């Protein structure tokens, strides 16, 4: 299934609040593979606003203007047919609704940077780390040999990207990482693999929405 008239794959990223991780993923794949993918994002319990640091990191570290991004419920997209549906948090995975058309499903769990409790510098690092993890996974994903893979192989490879630790992805793929990844690291320095402080106790990542 591709977008009618465009020949592009349709991909949907899901998380709980649709304010940070899924927004970042939606816009990163537009930058990396907008010629082949039409991207969307949504949440099970949308915050109603995109986190300012998600917009800041996309703009300052990736040169992406995401000012048009909107936090929205996945109910707005019910009935849409997608080729790929990727959840980036455990809550969204557990409550993910049925999507018509039998899309390839995968889970790329990423810590919620909006749940960070600590210094402003630490929270910015948390957003940069989440964006870096998603960037690396999307870079691997878009370089899969789609036309050469069966549907089962495509499902397996997409899922494998999510099961790998991002730091291990970086180490194993270092020699083959794309020019775009190298350009980002050359311009801004390597993106952080760790943040400066442990996650705060006031709110655990992906805490259930009450």
Q: Which tags fit this structure?
A:
210 residues, alpha/beta, Rossmann fold, 4-stranded parallel beta sheet, 7 helices, 4 strands, globular, disordered C terminus
**What is the straight-line distance between the termini?**
36 Å
How many domains comprise the coordinates? 1
Instruction: Quote the CATH topology.
Output: Rossmann fold
The string of secondary-structure elements, in order, is EHEHEHEHHHH
Please state the overall shape, judged from the principal axes of the Cα atoms: globular
Mean pLDDT: 82
Helix content: 40-55%
Our estimate of the beta-strand percent is: 5-15%
The first-level CATH class name? Alpha Beta
Sheet with the most strands: spatial strand order: 2-1-3-4
Tally of helical segments: 7
- Strand tally, please? 4
Instruction: Indicate the radius of gyration in whole angstroms.
Output: 16 Å
Low-pLDDT runs? 168-176, 187-210
- Helix/strand-derived class? alpha/beta
């Amino acid at each position: 299934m591709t977008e009618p008239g465009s020949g592009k794959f349709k991909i949907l990223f899901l998380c709980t609040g649709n304010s940070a991780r899924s927004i970042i993923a939606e816009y990163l794949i537009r930058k990396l593979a907008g010629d082949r993918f039409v991207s969307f994002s949504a949440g099970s319990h949308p915050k109603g606003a995109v986190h300012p640091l998600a917009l800041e990191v996309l703009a300052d570290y990736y040169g992406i203007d995401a000012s048009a991004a909107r936090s929205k419920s996945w109910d707005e997209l019910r009935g849409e047919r997608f080729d790929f549906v990727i959840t980036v948090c455990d809550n969204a995975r557990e409550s993910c609704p049925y999507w018509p058309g039998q899309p390839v499903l995968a889970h790329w769990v990423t810590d919620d940077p909006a749940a960070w409790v600590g210094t402003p510098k630490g929270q910015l690092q948390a957003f940069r780390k989440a964006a870096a993890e998603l960037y690396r996974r999307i870079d691997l994903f878009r370089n899969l040999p789609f036309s050469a893979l069966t549907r089962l192989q495509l499902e397996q490879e997409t899922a494998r990207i999510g099961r790998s630790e991002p730091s291990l992805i970086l180490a194993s793929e270092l020699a083959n990482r794309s020019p775009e990844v190298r350009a980002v690291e050359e311009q801004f320095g390597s993106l952080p693999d760790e943040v400066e402080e442990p996650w705060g106790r006031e709110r655990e990542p992906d805490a259930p929405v009450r």
